[in-house]
Amino acid sequence: MSGRPRHEVAPGGSRLRVVLLLRSLGYVRLFDPVIRGLLARGHEVHLLHERDDYTEQEKAWLRALEREPGFTWTLTTTLYRGGWAEVAKLLRRSTDYIHFLGPGFRGADALVSRAESRAHPRVRRLMRLRALRAEPIRSRLWRMLDLIERSLPRSRELEAELAALEPHVLVLVPHLMPGGRHSEYIRACAMLRIPTCMCIASWDNLSSKQLLRDAPDRVVVWNRFQRDEAIRLHAIPEDRIVLTGAQSFDQWFDRVPTDREAFCRRIGLDPIRPYVLFVGGALFPGADTEAEYVRSVWIPELQADPRLAGLQVLARPHPRRREQWAAVSFQGLDHVRVWPSPSLVSMPVDEETRADFFDAIHHSAAVVGVNTTAMIEAAVVGRPVHALRAPTFSDSQGGTYHFDYLLDVGGGLVDSAETAEEHRDQLLDSIEGRDDGWEARRIRFLVEFVRPYGLEVAALPLLLASIEDLAERPSIQRPSESLAVRLLRLVLRGGFAVARRGRRLRT
Asked: Helices in 287-446 by DSSP H: which ranges?
């Protein structure tokens, strides 16, 4: 199947049909504003997602969107069916693992380990050979496996599915974990001449997940740092990259908080006294879980200082680590609250959870975390941010690249301490309003990282305009495949047919 879907877009603000591809509804926290923004501008939005393990909150979100004119959705499993699905998964996970063994990721042991854990055991054993890890050999091996993966037969079912949806543009949010197969959507759309726009969901996605094998027509990033990562790590042509800022943070810039006294009393804190908010993250495994460290190390270290002995602490678990927080008891700590409770904590998607999340940050005197997006959100709200440094968190901090942005951009957003004493002093300065230079650093960070066109220029309208602009461009040309890819595909098809015939004969 080839050719553009039968309807064409007339220039000048026509009604568009946008297909938005998400790996799961876990991304709706980041892209709910995009969906609603497109609908508000008169476009149709069809949500295509690949996983149906919805939370109750996600089910409620989907039911609410179904009532919006112009919104439809389907669950797709096309790429995970058929005889080539397991072969494709094996090849992609293998090439991603070999990619992370390259010189660009030396020292990022946690990223390498994650890719290794998803690779086939035989590949892991093979790549333990020192000779294969030598850079010239590793590079050639990667290119060979990548060529084989590109030579796998195209998914005609996927092409038919996308063509039937008749999109003017496919907006995809790649999962970007080792082995992810988002590139096949880009290839299918190229054959159909459907423009593709890739939106980078979060600040770590380009540096810590997976190689982008195929360049879409447009890659939308937050800032110049992500643009540089797209060019340097993924070889995306610079003229295909658009900077818009981080649309998922727009909602926190102008939000109005609820009454502080009512909020504190609801969660069991004294509204007269300040509290510090600890924001949990989805961290790499360490010697201790984040909850264990907070309970057994951090809070006792705070209480050991007479100046902070009575400081109130509000700890917010990360939804992806709720079991770890549920396993730790905070009973007996009169000045500490874990809220929402681990069994109820969720991503801030609906109005109630957004208000709770915002109020927890806004009413705090300072925010502490290890490495999580909420630390950036705290800066948007206007609260000083501190990073807990400890050996147990080394993989989640020094073992990644994106954590350095918190330390460096704009002169450094977070106050990071190497000792408990230094951390307590920094925290006390924030609580008592003595950190005079932090506000200037906060503004510089936000302008460089979150809103590159100035604090008054929201990101969402720029992203929506970029999607509309791409959808109204002329059809792209069908990609040409090398002779090696076409010949290898014939060999693979022949080998698969022979193997299938042999299985039938044996049975």
From this structure: 290-293, 299-303, 322-326, 351-362, 374-381, 403-408, 420-431, 438-445
Q: What's the pTM value of the predicted model, to 2 decimals?
A: 0.88
The domains located in the chain, with CATH, are 17-81+162-245+460-471 (3.40.50.2000), 85-152+478-506 (no CATH), 252-450 (3.40.50.2000)
What's the pLDDT tens digit per position in 348-392?
Answer: 888 999 999 999 999 999 999 999 999 999 999 999 999 988 888
Instruction: Give the list of residues 6+ apart from residue 240 with CB closer than 8 angstroms, or none.
Output: 215, 216, 217, 218, 219
95 Cβ contact partners less than 8 Å away, ≥ 6 residues apart? 142, 145, 146, 149, 211
* Omega before residue 461 within 30° of 0, cis: no
Beta-carbon contacts of 444 under 8 Å, excluding residues fewer than 6 positions away, are 409, 410, 411
Residue 202 backbone dihedrals phi, psi, to 5 degrees:
-145, 175
Strand pairing report for 366-369 and 275-279: parallel
* Exposed e or buried b per residue across 6-36, where buried means at least 16 C-beta atoms within 10 angstroms of its C-beta: eeebeeeeeebbbbbbbbbbbbbbbbbbbbe
User: At 312, is the secondary structure helix, strand, or coil?
Assistant: strand
DSSP 8-state symbol, 248: G
- Residues 28, 22: contact at Cβ < 8 Å? yes
Helix (H, G, I), strand (E, B) or coil at 397: coil
* Dmax (CA) of the chain: 80
- CB within 8 A of 9, min separation 6: which ones? 16, 168, 471, 472
Amino acid at 359: D
Mean per-residue pLDDT for 21-28?
Answer: 87
Report yes or no: 4 and 193 within 8 Å, Cβ to Cβ: yes
- Bridge partners of 220, per DSSP, are 199, 242
* Rounded Cα–Cα distance for residues 399 and 283 (Å): 11
Separation between Cα atoms, residue 276 and residue 305, nearest integer Å: 15
Rounded Cα–Cα distance for residues 371 and 407 (Å): 11
For 364, list phi and psi in degrees, rounded to 5.
Answer: -80, 160
Residue 369 token pair: 């975390």
Q: How far apart are the first and last CA of the chain?
A: 35
Q: Give the DSSP letter string of 90-103.
A: HHHHHHHHHHHTSG
pLDDT at 224 over 70: yes
Whether residue 384 contacts residue 291, with contact meaning beta carbons closer than 8 Å, is answered with: no
On the question of pLDDT at 475 being above 70, the answer is: no
Q: Which of 61, 113, 119 is nearest to 90 (CA)?
A: 119
Radius of gyration for the alpha carbons in the chain, expressed in angstroms and rounded: 24
Q: Tokens 């060979």 appear where?
A: 144
Tens-digit pLDDT profile for residues 96-155: 899 888 887 777 788 888 888 888 899 999 999 989 989 999 999 988 888 888 888 888
> What's 479's DSSP letter?
P
Residue type, 318: H
CB-count exposure of residue 479 (10 Å: 0-12, 13-18, 19+): exposed
